[in-house]
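Tutorial sheet, problem 5. The two components below are modelled jointly, 634 residues in total.
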Amino acid sequence: MSLGVVSALALILLVLLLLVTGKDTFSIFGGMILNFLAIFFVILLIALGTPPLATAFISGLVILAIIIYFSPVGLKTGTIAYIVSVLTIVLLVLLILPVQYFGQLQGFGNETNEELGVFSVLIGVSFGQVATAMLLMSALGAIAEASIAMVSALNELIEETPDLTDQRLYHDGRIIGGKIMGTAYNTLFFGFFGGYLALFIWFIELKYSPALLINDKLFITEVASVILSMIAVTLTVPFTTFLVVRWRHRMISKSKR
Amino acid sequence: MQLNISERSEAMKQTKKQINLWIIALVLVMGIGLTIFMRHNAFLYKYTVAQVTATQTLSKHKNEDTHQNVDYSTTQNITLKILNGQHKNKKFNLHNTYTYSQALDQKYHPGQQVLVTLNAKSPSKSVIIGQKRDTLIVTLIWLTILLILVIVRKKGALSILSLLVNVLLFILAIQLELRHNGKHLLPIFAVLVVLFTLFTIGLIFGLNAEMFVSSVATITATSVSFLLFLLVLKLTHEQGIHYEAVSYAVQQPKTIFLAQVMIGVLGAIMDESTDITSAMHQLKYENPGLPFHKVFRSGLNMGKQIIGPLISILFLIFMADTIPMAILYLRNGNSIVETFNWTMYLGLVQSLVSAIGIVLTVPLTSALAGRFIGGKR
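Model answer (structure tokens):
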């Protein structure tokens, strides 16, 4: 009997997770499987004819919940992180729509033409909307991670020093945010380049002139998705700080009563 | 005296704040100027640039393919005004056919600018190369820089700089690779991984024990997960993998895919190992006498909390890429299994190898931090 590459890798991952994280393996591995199913479901639904962006948005709400509540954070921290993430993706959609309108990033580039030879491309699904769905989906993980990190760090801060002024908290929020953002941008940068290395090699191999490159649909789509994810991740900083400041007030006024 | 000092520092804070505001205002004005310039930069192009001034729908057909997909083809007449070159300000018309799905074609609107291969003798036979998208991308990049400067300030500027250097290294590496006709792709990228790591982590920590711990952990975790992947490929005889499905890889798709796997996870691993390292440094600073196994334990504990979300970041990036192609497959009557095998399998493989690297980083960083980070200073 032989084993597929995916099953073999999944097995190795499972063993390593058991060794390193012990009983948290269940939630981490389970979260991955649920996420995979959610993405697969989005693709199936869109292929069946549901509106792509709305489908991606609704399943985005589910995927964010899976990532956040399956990670080992408390319910309170998790809920704030979830609210921050939802606010962020609402704003992200408001950014994606004009980007798609001005950039017309739908469909496949001239680069893909040969591969598509055997397919019918008149499939009655709006690839413009599929592009917006894709831009939204690819940012979800980064948004969830950044909000969890921000909320946990700020939570720890107000627990250790409950008498911080609001102004001080905003200031510290910015410093903590700066640290988290710096590394998050790296994750995004390498992630996207790792996904599209072949495309960049192609551009350089075919000696695309800068003029063609900076107007190329696929290139712009890639750059736009890194940038939109970076913007989304950055937005979690003020959102989290604002919510934590407000939430802390409520806690204080409750304990006074 | 006391009051005087605090007054002075207050005044300094004020001026600092003002300088910051000025910088932000400057970036704002520059950005608006840049956007307007990009809209009017046609004179920089060797290609003919034209602006759509009017469109008119000529005819619309219903189309049904062999898989019962209903789509519509519309032909539009586009009036274009040339913006550069010797035919500047001349207007001409051409026909454009687009479909409802717009997979390979596009509907044009007045106001859009396009690059054109101009046929001067009969302009209606000119061909649109593509839409001009430079204004959009430049505006977006500027908006991001502005946002980062407003929200995270100096730290933000530093990370932008670090990304720029990484982009340059990247372009250099691909150039170098091409000079060798793509024969040494993997070795070149392996060297690149080391350079990226040393540079990025060096910028975060400076030259010290933390940098050593974090870099060694990053490079080791990346290499071990990659070697494990190679081993799996060998033992399973690459069963299930279709390298033909690597997009845009005309030559040696396998090598390109391997390089993608190696590079894709690097950022996440660096993110993770620097996070754990600085937390362990803080821990040792507060409790200088802490024995190895306690530091190690606490590193593992911290790692547990970040593994899950980090895996999801890459997972969603790699899987979201596959959405358009998977939809095309499904709508062309392929089964779910076939669609999975040909469009999502590679993304899943890349996600799993990355996840393995992310998990390995935790014990590696914790052990190295427990051993090499001192509690003095």
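Marking note: DSSP finds eight helices and no strands in chain A. Full credit if you identified this.
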